[in-house]
């Protein structure tokens, strides 16, 4: 039954993309470059960390960047500026958890059901040089200059199947609409050469990311990972792929030397408004995406900390982005082009 439903879902996904790609439904185009970062599957593949990394690197190079997002499960409506160039203007409930996390990294963010409207608002209020469209691979309504497709090497899209029998939002062959492929978590698989060989056959430009855990935070202070040494630790998260986070903590426990005594798994985008945890562990460990939604009194009561997670790529990735769109799109604008 699930396979039949997946075939129906796949047919609808093909029709939807076809209508936009063939111009049967018009795409809206913003007057400045748009970089889309997205994936083919539901759940965590590392889109948000890649968005944060890309935005920060472009900002380091002198560009003004604004992220456009839907703001999934936010409690506000319409177009909302989450952060301008100077400060955060709303709470996480009005922004959505992922846009708020991006904003916490000093990156301007605008959320809206209509990303074109969000872009126009950002141009009026923030005046960016570049947009990054977060989770944009299936947002066909907005023209993008570069399509970046992220995937998890531990479950590559060519081995997955369509919803509801699998995790794919679109057929795996739709990778062809991407300009760049980003391979996340390659270091976690044994068949690295096989995956690289497969990607090379797809004839797409690709880059390999590296994950790094930089320490801990309780949102007030930062701590070294060694703070966990010798302690009994509880672990919880509300992600698209909770087992993946639990596996990361298990590997860290062997490296640092702590014991995981409890695990709590919550749905993706869980709001933690009524958080109840055991007081048995010395500390509770979660993600930055989760801890930003937890009330300060709960963080103190249960001694909650988050892993400070970053994703990095070689400078060649940003160089390629500049060569791909900025030379043609920006050299004749108000920005002065820099050689890359």
Instruction: Catalogue the unreliable spans.
Output: 330-340
In CATH, the architecture of the largest domain is 3-Layer(aba) Sandwich
Please work out how many helical segments DSSP would assign: 10
Which word captures the global form?
Answer: globular
Radius of gyration: 20 Å
CATH topology of the largest domain: Rossmann fold
Mean pLDDT: 94
Distance between the first and last residues' Cα: 53 Å
Strand element count: 14
- Structural class, from secondary structure content? alpha/beta
- SSE series: HEHEEHHEHEEEHEEEEHEEHHEH
Which superfamily, in CATH terms, is the homologous superfamily of the largest domain? P-loop containing nucleotide triphosphate hydrolases
CATH class of the largest domain: Alpha Beta
Model description:
Pathway: Glycolipid biosynthesis; lipid IV(A) biosynthesis; lipid IV(A) from (3R)-3-hydroxytetradecanoyl-[acyl-carrier-protein] and UDP-N-acetyl-alpha-D-glucosamine: step 6/6. One of its GO terms (molecular function) is ATP binding. This is Tetraacyldisaccharide 4'-kinase. One of its GO terms (biological process) is lipopolysaccharide core region biosynthetic process. Belongs to the LpxK family. This protein is α/β, with parallel strands linked by helices. The protein folds into two domains: 213 residues, Rossmann fold (3-Layer(aba) Sandwich); 98 residues. It contains ten helices and 14 strands. The strands form two sheets. The protein has an eight-stranded mixed β-sheet with strand order 3-4-2-5-1-6-7-8, sandwiched between helices. The protein is globular. 35% of the residues are buried. The C terminus is likely disordered.
């Amino acid at each position: 039954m699930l396979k039949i439903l997946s075939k129906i879902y796949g047919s609808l996904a093909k029709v939807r993309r076809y209508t936009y790609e063939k111009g049967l439904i018009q795409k809206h185009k913003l007057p400045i470059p748009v970089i889309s970062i997205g994936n083919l599957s539901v759940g965590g593949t590392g889109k948000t960390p890649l968005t944060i990394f890309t935005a920060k690197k472009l900002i380091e190079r002198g560009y003004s960047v604004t992220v456009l997002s839907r703001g999934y499960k936010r409690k506000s409506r319409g177009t909302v500026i989450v952060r301008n160039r100077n400060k955060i203007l709303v709470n996480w409930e009005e922004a959505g958890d992922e846009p708020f996390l991006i904003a916490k990294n000093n990156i301007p963010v605008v959320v809206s059901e209509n990303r074109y409207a969000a872009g126009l608002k950002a141009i009026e209020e923030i005046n960016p040089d570049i947009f990054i469209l977060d989770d944009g691979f299936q947002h066909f309504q907005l023209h993008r200059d570069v399509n970046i497709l992220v995937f998890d090497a531990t479950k590559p899209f060519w081995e997955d199947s369509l919803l509801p029998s699998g995790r794919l939002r679109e057929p795996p062959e739709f990778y062809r609409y991407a300009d760049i492929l980003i391979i996340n978590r390659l270091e976690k698989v044994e068949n690295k050469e096989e995956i690289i060989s497969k990607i090379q056959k797809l004839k797409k430009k690709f880059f390999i990311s590296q994950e790094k855990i930089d320490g801990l935070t309780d949102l007030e202070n930062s701590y070294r990972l060694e703070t966990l040494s010798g302690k009994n630790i509880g672990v919880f998260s509300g992600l698209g792929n909770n087992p993946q986070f639990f596996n990361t903590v298990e590997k860290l426990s062997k490296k640092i030397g702590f014991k995981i005594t409890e695990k709590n798994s919550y749905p993706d985008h869980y709001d933690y408004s009524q958080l109840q945890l055991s007081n048995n562990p010395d500390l509770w460990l979660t993600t930055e995406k989760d801890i930003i939604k937890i009330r300060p009194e709960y963080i103190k009561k249960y001694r909650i900390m988050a892993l400070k997670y970053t994703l990095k790529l070689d400078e060649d990735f940003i160089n390629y982005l500049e060569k791909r769109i900025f030379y043609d799109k920006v050299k004749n604008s108000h920005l002065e082009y820099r050689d890359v």
